[in-house]
């Protein structure tokens, strides 16, 4: 039962029963059809059922005893609660939002224009220059050996020059021809026999000081001559055969004037070499020439 004054917002098909006055509010653009079973709806813009239009006012329906108000034909689209909806299975083919496409079936479209590769060639000549300051390190840095860590190294280490046992070295026999090694200087050959002679000169005829010996040669290694006296005295050495180089005489060291008390020193690796198979003699000229001489030689 309803008593008192009611303000109702009715939905289609709603029914109200009671003995109190009912006030129904609607507008002209949303008419609410109201049916009063006993035909006692009054007030507002309609009566006795049908569509009642109340423009800003109210409709009073009065009835004694039980009564009901039916509201229907509301707007076609009503708010619906999905929670109360029945569930209906749906079958068929459902497509995902992004569909697979076969490139074989795609139409081809020629594309023209300029196409750039991902990495473009760049001319260094057109690049701007930017001064760079700071500390620049070379690729190979100087390193202080004093700060390097030490690492023990083990194993067998070979030095550049290895010790050699002479006992295991092969031997090669060496022979020497009589006299001296071929091609060497006899005056500097430690195996050669060097002979020294000295004396004083007199007269102006050749005098033998080294006799010939077969086909050997006389190598004069050194010569010292000291002038003693005489008028325009000269000194020279000659070679030849026979008595005092009398046969085939040849000059070995040419003559020069010897001043008194003057020393003439001929020292070289070899002063002169006589021919094979000849003796050695001195030869003075001048008036009563006198000199002192000393020479060393090798005969071989």
| Total helical elements | 0
Topology pattern, helix = H, strand = E:
EEEEEEEEEEEEE
Unreliable spans are: 1-7, 43-59, 178-182
Q: Tally of extended strands?
A: 13
CATH class of the domain at 188-299: Mainly Beta
SS-derived structural category: mainly beta
Mean pLDDT: 76
Overview of this protein structure:
This protein has 300 residues and is mostly beta strands. Among the domains are: 1-75, no CATH class; 188-299, Jelly Rolls (Sandwich). It has strands at 6-8, 22-24, 32-35, 41-42, 51-52, 59-61, 70-71, 195-200, 207-210, 218-241, 247-257, 263-273, 279-299. A hairpin with a 5-residue loop joins strand 10 (218-241) and strand 11 (247-257). The protein is rod-shaped, with a radius of gyration of 75 Å. The protein starts with 5 loop residues before the first strand and ends with a strand. The relative contact order is 0.12. The model is unreliable at 1-7, 43-59 and 178-182 (pLDDT under 50).
List the helices and strands and how they pair.
Elements: E1 6-8, E2 22-24, E3 32-35, E4 41-42, E5 51-52, E6 59-61, E7 70-71, E8 195-200, E9 207-210, E10 218-241, E11 247-257, E12 263-273, E13 279-299
Parallel strand pairs: 1-2
Antiparallel strand pairs: 2-6, 3-5, 3-7, 4-6, 8-13, 9-13, 10-11, 10-12, 10-13
């Amino acid at each position: 039962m309803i008593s008192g004054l009611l303000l109702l917002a009715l939905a289609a098909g709603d029914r109200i029963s009671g003995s109190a006055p009912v006030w129904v509010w609607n507008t002209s653009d949303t008419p609410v059809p109201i049916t009063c079973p006993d035909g006692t709806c009054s007030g507002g813009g309609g009566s006795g059922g049908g569509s009642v239009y109340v423009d800003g006012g109210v409709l009073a329906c009065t009835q004694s005893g039980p009564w009901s108000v039916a509201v229907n034909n509301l707007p076609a689209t009503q708010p619906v609660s999905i929670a109360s909806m029945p569930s209906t299975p749906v079958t068929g083919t459902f497509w995902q939002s992004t569909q697979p496409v076969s490139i074989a079936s795609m139409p081809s479209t020629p594309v023209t224009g300029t196409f750039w590769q991902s990495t473009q060639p760049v001319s260094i000549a057109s690049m701007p220059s930017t001064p760079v300051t700071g500390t620049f390190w070379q690729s190979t840095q100087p390193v202080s050996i004093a700060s390097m860590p030490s690492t023990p190294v083990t194993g067998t280490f070979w030095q550049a020059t290895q010790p050699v046992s002479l006992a295991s070295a092969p031997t090669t026999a060496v022979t020497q021809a009589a006299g001296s090694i071929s091609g060497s200087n006899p005056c500097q050959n430690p195996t050669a026999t060097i002979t020294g002679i000295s004396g004083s000169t007199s007269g102006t005829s050749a005098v033998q000081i080294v006799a010939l010996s077969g086909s050997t040669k006389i190598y004069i290694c050194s010569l010292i001559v000291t002038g003693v006296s005489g008028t325009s005295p000269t000194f020279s050495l000659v070679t030849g055969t026979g008595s005092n180089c009398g046969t085939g005489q040849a000059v070995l060291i040419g003559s020069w004037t010897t001043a008194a008390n003057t020393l003439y020193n001929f020292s070289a690796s070899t002063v002169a070499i006589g021919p094979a198979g000849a003796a050695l003699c001195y030869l003075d000229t001048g008036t009563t020439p006198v000199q002192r001489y000393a020479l060393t030689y090798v005969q071989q």
